[in-house]
Amino acid sequence: MFCPAAGSNIYREKEVLKGKLEEKFDNFASNETSAQMPGRDCTQKRGEKMKAGMVKMMTAALTAACLMGMLTGCTTTKSETTTTTTTDANGNTTTTTTSKTTENGKTTESTTTTTTSETAEEENTAEDSAASYVATLSISNETGADIYALYFSSNQSDEWGDSIIDEGDPLEDGYTITYHDAFTYDSDYLIWDLQAEDADGNAITFEGLDMSYAEDPENITISLCVEDDGYTAYVE
Predict the structure, then answer these.
(1) CB under 8 Å to 80, separation ≥6 — which residues?
(2) For residues 135 and 219, what is the distance between their CA atoms, to the nearest angstrom?
């Protein structure tokens, strides 16, 4: 490999040293020739021959140094990345990424593996899509009796919680009362149960009220009615 910057600098240094070397040998030959006048031609030829030999040796040495400098003054780097993806029978996806780097003939390799579960992605998507509501509840009492207590509970719970009707302020028969922020629910739990009690503590339970029937999930109207086959509740 040739490195332009390193080669240029070393070449210039080589030419400078070569020039200085030639200048010294010129001075040496001149001095020797002046000191030995009778054999000047022989001495001059000998000096020129020595000069040529020494310059040749020094040039070879400098050329070798230049080549070494060009080889060591540059860095060769090559990178390669491969990615493979597999999916098993359960829908789990495994991605393997392999990175290989070669620098000055030395190779290093690293591998990264990640596994994604399709089930986990579906659960995360379901959690993200669930919406929470604080409902304003309008209760219409058509049961034929005053209601003194009214309880709500998700059909997945065994407890009723507190009554939304204040003690001493019953929901009279034939009336509708609106309770703001009566209860909180989310779109994953839309089925609720309701229990109404009269003045004597007699309870009527309405099971399986589906809040998805409400036109506005934050403003729900429930009508409690008495019919030929018993008590019924309507969500709207």
Answers:
(1) 99, 100, 101, 102
(2) 6
